[in-house]
Amino acid sequence: xxxxxxxxxxxxxxxxxxxxxxxxxxxxxxxxxxxxxxxxxxxxxxxxxxxxxxxxxxxxxxxxxxxxxxxxxxxxxxxxxxxxxxxxxxxxxxxxxxxxxxxxxxxxxxxxxxxxxxxxxxxxxxxxxxxxxxxxxxxxxxxxxxxxxxxxxxxxxxxxxxxxxxxxxxxxxxxxxxxxxxxxxxxxxxxxxxxxxxxxxxxxxxxxxxxxxxxxxxxxxxxxxxxxxxxxxxxxxxxxxxxxxxxxxxxxxxxxxxxxxxxxxxxxxxxxxxxxxxxxxxxxxxxxxxxxxxxxxxxxxxxxxxxxxxxxxxxxxxxxxxxxxxxxxxxxxxxxxxxxxxxxxxxxxxxxxxxxxxxxxxxxxxxxxxxxxxxxxxxxxxxxxxxxxxxxxxxxxxxxxxxxxxxxxxxxxxxxxxxxxxxxxxxxxxxxxxxxxxxxxxxxxxxxxxxxxxxxxxxxxxxxxxxxxxxxxxxxxxxxxxxxxxxxxxxxxxxxxxxxxxxxxxxxxxxxxxxxxxxxxxxxxxxxxxxxxxxxxxxxxxxxxxxxxxxxxxxxxxxxxxxxxxxxxxxxxxxxxxxxxxx
Length: 583
What we know:
Elements: H1 7-14, E1 19-23, H2 25-33, E2 50-54, H3 66-69, E3 75-77, H4 85-92, E4 101-103, E5 134-136, H5 148-152, E6 158-160, E7 168-169, E8 191-193, E9 201-202, E10 214-216, E11 237-239, H6 248-256, H7 259-267, H8 275-294, H9 297-307, E12 311-315, E13 325-328, E14 338-345, H10 354-367, E15 377-382, E16 390-395, E17 401-402, E18 410-411, H11 412-430, E19 451-455, E20 461-464, E21 468-469, E22 481-488, H12 492-515, H13 524-530, E23 548-556, E24 562-566, E25 580-582
Parallel strand pairs: 1-2, 2-3, 3-4, 4-5, 5-6, 6-8, 7-9, 8-10, 10-11, 12-23, 12-25, 13-16, 13-23
Antiparallel strand pairs: 14-22, 14-23, 15-22, 16-19, 17-18, 19-20, 20-21, 23-24
Helix pairs in contact: 10-12
């Protein structure tokens, strides 16, 4: 009877879903009838990677063992419920090793659960949330935060605390003795929002957050801003509006000037600077210079500054007159269920060895973040040669035909047999077990009755993951616009993480090409490998330093229901410290 009351959970178990959202009046009634607790059936959905439980004022407890039961969770949204520290504690106790986003906003929390450092001595090692990137605690009743949070979530990049009752910042958030640039607590924290609190003091130890780029302390009770703000090496955006600052000139600047001007004013010691102020400023200057050398010297600082200039612009589906769509067939669910795609426009592969660097980068990503293609596989295509719409499908080995890169058309089973023979010959010649090239990935298809493939509108297979993509859509030196594809049999989040990194690496390569003016006439070997070069003079013109454009691509099921949209609002967050995304 209890299971029948939750048809969403039955469906999720039957369809082996990885995402689940529960909200609304009906859910609230069921939770209230169960005494404010979640059903035990939820803990049986071990494949869940994204779980949202929001807008349920009756929800007071997660129930014990949530973390242990759902180890694959990377997104947990518990917004606008009635969860207190005790109700959260039993559910979050333990470790969520894959969790990247945790939203606890709007719960009326007066203290944090032990798993987030709310206990008196903070959480014990190891970290409860080793991969957590974003934590939203807005709209609660928190008065203070303990240093245990830095232990619980050491990789935190965004901490949202607006609408609480905090009185000091950083307050107890940093462990005693935290030094600027020490790399101790929160070495990656780049976004800190503490608007609409009761903050009376912004302490100088704010400079101990070495990666801080965005700070929002609007609508608090600040009377002064510390000069130490100028020592935050990466601070680019700051909102101090809605405070009653004693320095009226500074208050005017806060309401009308850019962050850079405010920091310069603070660095100079403000208006009416005397000898003592000058001495303090000189001491701070020496301290900054010493810290910069300690962090790796001026050259490394310059590299960090340059890295922050990388730009990409996201073109939303609604803004695109002809958006590209990928339709996923039901059969991929049991073979290679996850795919993420996007279009990237504005790359420059023509000069010198730009194309070689691009291909080499893709190979390195396959070895590293893709874990030798066991976690995910990347495929890159020339967008001009794509015939949309595309279908992500499965076909038997003797029916899947493809023209592999550098080879003639063949069936998948014949290609694998040929690669296996080449691998054996390679072993004999080199007299060792290690093999190279595509031969390393043959075992990834062992035991599969059908193989995954990406098919264009003409029925041509353009990609056969994790083995190869097609000669038809091969990237050449005159390619400017790319269709990017990442597939996985492990998780959707891995696809997104790999795609984030791929876009970052392409942006870095594009900037390198722009800054290093190589001759567009490449060596003969590259031309032979990559095809004829288009010698249209207009295409050989000096490239303009414009942001790359990432066009969103939807993946839908056969009925047109959305499965995944990339990049969404939360995507590209993993590379946000090196990439500026204009949405």
